[in-house]
Amino acid sequence: MASFSLHEPVEQFLDRIASAKPEPAGGSVAAVAVAMAAGLVAMAARLAHEWPQAGEVVERAEALRSMMATLALADADAYAKVVDALRLPPASPSRAAEVSQALSAAADVPLAVAEAAAEIAVLAALVAQEGNDRLRGDALVAAELAGAGARGAAELVAINLAGLDDPRVRRAQDLAAATRPR
Fold first, then answer.
1. Residue 1: its pLDDT value, please?
2. What CATH number has the domain bearing residue 66?
3. Which positions of the chain have pLDDT values less than 50?
4. pTM of the prediction?
5. Domain-located, residue 4
6. Largest alpha-carbon pair distance within the chain?
7. Residue 3 lies in a domain
8. 27 exposure class (CB count in 10 Å sphere: 0-12, 13-18, 19+)
9. Domain residues for 95?
10. Rounded to an integer, what distance in angstroms lies between the CA atom of residue 29 and that of residue 44?
11. pLDDT value at residue 5
């Protein structure tokens, strides 16, 4: 179970990230960045009173924001399972398989973060184009945060699956590339 809560004050969460403890780490931080991007999209869409699609965008952004909060905690749990597998005695006959299985499972969380980030980046671009002009900057910040989260998550997928010919690596890389402005 994650040793942090997303209900704690921001300063305390930032202190936990900077601590000598191994989590929350990159995957959780990527998920929180994408959650913040989703929050900005939802806020900017809520304030686009003249835009007919605003309600749909708010609903989807809120669903993705909630999912990212769950994934931030899930990433910490997945990482803990990797650490547990790595702590098995090197001579243990099951160690290699357990480490491999834990790393494979740990790749699923950042892949889901990259998938959500790519969707948030699209929604952010839509809000920037169609929403309230005064909130265009907020939508653009959301797009950048989503892109950063996607790129970080894609790197984590590649690291967790290093040396394997796994299609999740390419999928994560493609999702991250899709968040780059054209």
1. 61
2. 1.20.120.680
3. none
4. 0.92
5. no
6. 66
7. no
8. buried
9. 10-178
10. 23
11. 65
